[in-house]
Each structure stands twice: as structure tokens, then as C-alpha cells.
Amino acid sequence: MAIGEFGGAVKQPAVSGTNFSAPLYWMYEMAHAALNPSRAMADASRMFFRNPMNPAAHTPVGKSMAAGFELFERATRRYGKPDWGIDTVLVGGTRVPVHINTVWERPFCRLLHFERAFEHPPRRPQPRLIIVAPMSGHYATLLRGTVEAFLPTHDVYVTDWVDAKMVPLAAGRFGLDDYMDYLISIFRRMGGDCHVLAVCQPAVPVAAAIARMEQMDDPYVPKSMILMGGPIDTRESPTAVNELAKERGIDFFRRHVITHVPWPHPGAMREVYPGFLQLNGFMTMNLDRHLIAHADLFRHLIQGDGDSAEKHRDFYDEYLAVMDLDANFYLETVEKVFIEHALPNGTMTHHGLPVRLDAVRNVALMTVEGEKDDISGIGQTQAMHRLCPAIPDEKRAHWLQPDVGHYGVFNGSRFRSEIAPRISDFILSQELPRRSEGEGASVTTLRPRLVTN
Description:
Blueprint: H1 3-7, H2 24-34, H3 36-50, H4 60-76, E1 88-91, E2 94-106, E3 109-116, E4 128-132, H5 144-150, E5 155-161, H6 176-189, E6 195-199, H7 203-215, E7 224-228, H8 240-248, H9 250-256, E8 259-260, E9 271-273, H10 275-285, H11 287-303, H12 306-319, E10 325-326, H13 327-339, H14 342-345, E11 349-350, E12 353-354, E13 364-370, H15 383-387, E14 396-401, H16 413-429
Parallel strand pairs: 4-5, 4-6, 6-7, 7-13, 13-14
Antiparallel strand pairs: 1-2, 2-3, 3-5, 8-9, 9-10, 11-12
Helix pairs in contact: 3-4, 4-11, 5-16, 6-7, 6-13, 8-13, 11-12
């Protein structure tokens, strides 16, 4: 979800002054429309060969035909925004309904509240947790597992970023400064009674937004920030995808991946990094693994292994659903985060004003990394501790999770059993209320009950 997913598979040769991507969106739309009849025929044929009343459905040839038609239909389908699918949650042994409400909204983002309809409020504290989802191609629903892990013990909010092709040009540009403006507005809406968790890409703008608030002595800064697998300083253990940005330079990305949204989308003529190009980058980074997964699906369909086939469908229905990114945000992120290293170099700005991480003193800090993360290397997120010297030792923690890659940092069994409990523990340790300015010394927080490894 960092630069690797922003365009890690772009391999066109750079030719000065040429924008190769300009007609790509129109060509993509035409190609997709041209495949509609074939896709409909494949779907109908699949149903024909899977019909139990059809004798051919019970033969190896019939099963192979049905499997092949399904793979073709799925490979050429346009995947829409997935549903959250979270209707209830188990809290203290009781199944509680969950209602998803929009509590804050701007053209490029909605803040969703996963409101739990308690019959009797739980005795355990339920801290407010804002999960800042990555704006790097996938929808916020990619963090479904993250949300589910914290819902039993936290009052959860999630940033639901909007597909740029759905935002009219009249809504204006959206750059990195605007991203930080959104975050500051959200934090102020919470009145300081919240904790923020940033997954990968938003680690930098979350840190910068909080630093700006601290510089302004804003009383509504969050109580803590948890940064997970984020590119705070990509000079630490640089990965292959980090090196891509330095090797290519910003002009390469501007020429090769930026195009205009075509009509009739609401965002027609907006400059974007389109989702289908991002998906090309996602897939080619691990092409062998994806090819094997689809070969396995073919085999599972023939063998009638419905459970394995359904797991594949669930994963790829989410993974193949992508959104366009506003070109200003994408290019500014690549340039400032991955090429200039503006945050660790102290040159980051917000509307022309300097971002000073040494001003962060009231917000507790926890960083989480994965031992096998090939997107954000070891030490890139932990660097935030070095850059924030004013945070007291009792308000900081770091966790390096063994044997997990990038996605394992925020999803999966190890996340649920080993990472999420430590984050919850850290959040609870920072839950004592702050003293107001006239009350003398600042409040003493509980020391986190987790070790720094």
C-alpha cells in the first residue's frame, strides 16, 4: 500500500515530453465494453454446465468447461466497491447489532462510525479509535479484518475514501495538504477524545497533521497515534518498491500513469492515477502467486471443493476492487514521501508552513512493523520514535511482529492474536484524561504493559 502499490509495475521506457497514459482510460473503457457480450455468454455457459439437470455437468469435460467460463468471467469483470458485511459483533459474550453511519463528510472522504447498539453499556472502557484507511488504490473495506478485531473493545471509526472518478471536477483538487486538512478536521470533531491508527500510506500524513496541531497547541489532538507498516523514512531498509521512486523520478510517474477520467463518470476530466493501472501494479508484483491461485481455483471448481473456491472468490472480490486516486495527491505523495523523504528530512510543509515533529509531546506513539514486510521495510515506521524526541518514554512503544509480511501487519490470525491485543493494551494505557491548561502538571499515564522488541 505504499509506492509499490502506487505503481510498482510500471515498466514503460521514459521518453521526455510524452504522456503515454493520456488515452489509456478511454481505451480501457472501450475494451471493457467490447467484452460485455463475451462475458455475458461465458456467464450463461457457466450456468449451463453447472446445472445439475444437465448430464454434462457431472462429467470431467463439463466441470472443466464450467470452471473455465467462470475464470474468464471473473478475469474480465469490473469489481465494484465491496460491502463491509459487518452486521453484528460479539461483545462480552453478547451478540450486538452494528449500524454503520456517516458522521462526517467531504468530497473525497466520509468518516464511518461502526455504532454498536448496546442494550446495556459494557463495563470495560470503550476508547474511540479512528482507523485511517490507506488511500492507495483499494477501498477501506480492505481493513474489514482490522475493524472486526477492534469492534468488541473499541468505539470504531474508519475513513472511507471516495473513488476520484466519482468526484466532480467542480469539487476542486485534492492533494497531500488537503488530506491533512481532512484529518485535522476529523480529530477536532472528536474533541481530542480519540486514538488514531494509521495503516501504511496514511502514517506520514497522520504524523504531519498531528505535528501541525501540536505546533498550534490544539487541545483536540488525539490521545495516541498507532502507525502500522508506514513509510515514515523509506531510507531505512529500502525495499525494491522504495527504490523504484528514486530510480524513475517524479516526471516518469507524471508521464506514464496520470490520465483523465472519461465521460460519463461524475469526475470526468479529473486527472487521476486510474485503478486499473494500479491493479496492474498489484498483480505483477506477485504475478506467479496470483497465477497459482487462479490455477488452484480452476482445480477446486473441478473437484467440487466449494469452501476453497469461495475463499478464493472472497479474497479476489476485495483485492480486484480498486479506485482511482486524484493525480495531485498521488504525485505529491510519491515526491514528498518516497523521493524527497520530506518528513524525516524536516522539509515537510502543510500549506507552506513547516511540519515540526519535535513539537509532538502530548500524543502517545506506538509503531508496528512486520518482520517480512516487502513494502515498508524494517525500521521505516520505527523511525518515528527518533523523529519525535519530546514524547516521554512512558508514552511510546514499538512492536516488530515475527513471520508476517505487509498485509499480516493489519490482518490475519497473527494480527488478531498478537498485534491487536498489544495495540488495545497501549490505547488503554493512554486513556487517563488530560489536565486542562490551568491545572498544573500534565497527567501521568499508565506505562504500557507490552515490551519493546
